[in-house]
């Protein structure tokens, strides 16, 4: 406990100078928020949602992917689960292929309508401008 109370020193040999020669990817990774760094990358990585994972796996293996509505209290993994499915389905292009909206953050129904309409008009080959 005393090591935590000492400011700047954990021990004589424990001080570590930051590396100046880190790559851009290493610097970006160190700045990544914890929630993004450890977010599930595939549907199989999602935990504590066995029933949802099973349904999603069946949908992804089939030829017809239905419209889905995820609902529940904050922090239950709705966004993480669907982003994992999108990564699995679309690979590196998942950000161009999904539109993430939080209606409570958007101010006014017209803003939501405009965003959905413009996203729906894109074809598979068009790239979105963020």
UniProtKB/TrEMBL annotation:
GO terms for molecular function: ATP binding. Signal peptide: none annotated. It comes from the Eukaryota. The keyword Transmembrane does not apply. Residues 68-119 form the ATPase AAA-type core domain. The keyword ATP-binding applies. GO terms for biological process: DNA replication. Keywords: ATP-binding, DNA replication, Nucleotide-binding. Belongs to the activator 1 small subunits family. This is Replication factor C subunit 4.
């Amino acid at each position: 406990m005393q090591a935590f109370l000492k400011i700047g020193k954990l021990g004589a040999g424990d001080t570590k100078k930051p590396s100046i020669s880190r790559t851009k990817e290493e610097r970006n990774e160190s700045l990544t928020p914890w929630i993004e760094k450890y977010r599930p990358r595939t549907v199989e990585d999602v935990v504590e949602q066995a029933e949802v994972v099973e349904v999603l796996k069946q949908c992804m293996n089939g030829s017809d992917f239905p419209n889905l509505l995820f609902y529940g209290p904050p922090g239950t993994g709705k966004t993480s689960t669907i982003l994992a499915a999108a990564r699995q389905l679309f690979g590196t292009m998942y950000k161009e292929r999904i539109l993430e909206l939080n209606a409570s953050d958007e101010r006014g129904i017209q803003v939501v309508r405009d965003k959905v309409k413009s996203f729906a008009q894109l074809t598979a080959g068009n790239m979105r401008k963020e």
